[in-house]
Amino acid sequence: MEFFNKIKDAFKKTSEKISLSIVGKKIDENFAQEIEDALIMADVGVKTVSALAKKLTNRKFSKETTDQEVKQFLADEICELLKPYESNFFRDNLSHNPEIILIIGVNGGGKTTTIAKIASFFKTSGHSPLLVAADTFRAAAVEQLKYWAEKISVNILEGKEKVDAASLAYDSVKLASVLNCDVVLIDTAGRMQNRSDLLDELEKMKRVVKKLDESAPHKIILVLDGLIGQASHNQVDVFLNKIGIDGIIVTKLDGTAKGGAIISLTEKYRIPIFAIGIGESLDDLKPFSASEYARALLGL
Ligand SMILES: Nc1nc2c(ncn2[C@@H]2O[C@H](COP(=O)(O)OP(=O)(O)OP(=O)(O)O)[C@@H](O)[C@H]2O)c(=O)[nH]1
Ligand SMILES: [Mg+2]
């Protein structure tokens, strides 16, 4: 329960605004309109919002309907929409040994922090992660990952400055079998989606890893900054076209009023949400649960 309260708390900025549109409102012909506006403001996609508003109107609530009932109705509808995008990424299902996971995204989205959180999760569930500092552009980036590796006590392969990221990725797969690591987490340099040279390098990493294991990388995870809400859609477009994406992790949901953006993301791209980031510490990454998310969004 404490676990859910943390999620609920993280979504407060979003849920309070949605709540305002429901609590104490008369159920008349304008009733759905205000809720519709609040959901739009929270970055829930327009198509989904219209569908939800229609359902609210058709539901024909009576004057006796409580605020809680309206919220519950919306939460149930949202939960149903998002169920297909839950994933079993955190249910301990590493299907390859080593499982090679590439973490991609633009600068500052939360890649490195998220890798630390994932590694901590796998370590706790009995696995042996290898972190790969393939962000060889910035020395500070390597230091940051090293800090986490020490803190969690997991292995790390450091890229020397200006070393080719793809060759480092190649080495890491070999090193994993030497060290008996069963999950390889590759941290990449933050890529602005308009830097095509960096995107090419990412593509090369993917190609090179395949030389050792045809099925690798087994998961490509795009990390998105939750603070920018739907504005992250163009990032998805670019990475999806150029690299491919198996799952998305949305970070920084603890500080945003655009917490509804996960709904517009799935509505548009139909890609699974692996997890959500709700803080800066290691246990602040939660597997994505449609029902928890829906309840948190409505403040239930
Ligand atoms: N509040 C909050 N902060 C987060 C979360 N995830 C990451 N951060 C913070 O966001 C900042 C950037 O995170 P990084 O992990 O360095 O991001 P990055 O994508 O690796 O950045 P580059 O390496 O520069 O591309 C750091 O200060 C993190 O502590 C989150 O879920 N919540
Ligand atoms: Mg980083």
Q: What distinguishing features does this structure have?
A:
300 residues, alpha/beta, Four Helix Bundle (Hemerythrin (Met), subunit A), Rossmann fold, 12 helices, 8 strands, elongated, binds guanosine-5'-triphosphate, binds magnesium ion
Fourth CATH level, the homologous superfamily of the largest domain = P-loop containing nucleotide triphosphate hydrolases
What is the CATH class name of the largest domain?
Alpha Beta
DSSP helix fraction: 40-55%
Question: How many β-strand stretches?
Answer: 8
Q: Which residues sit in consecutive blocks of at least 5 with pLDDT less than 50?
A: none
Largest sheet: 8 strands, mixed
Describe the structure concisely:
The chain is an alpha/beta fold. Helix content is 48%, strand content 13%.
Question: Would you mind describing this structure in some detail?
Answer:
With 300 residues, this protein is α/β, with parallel strands linked by helices. The chain folds into two domains: 2-85, Four Helix Bundle (Hemerythrin (Met), subunit A) (Up-down Bundle); 99-288, 3-Layer(aba) Sandwich (Rossmann fold). The chain contains twelve helices and eight strands. The chain has an eight-stranded mixed beta sheet with strand order 3-2-4-1-5-6-7-8, with helices on both faces. The longest helix has 17 residues, at 196-212. The radius of gyration is 21 Å and the shape is elongated. It starts with a helix and ends with a helix. The structure holds guanosine-5'-triphosphate and magnesium ion.
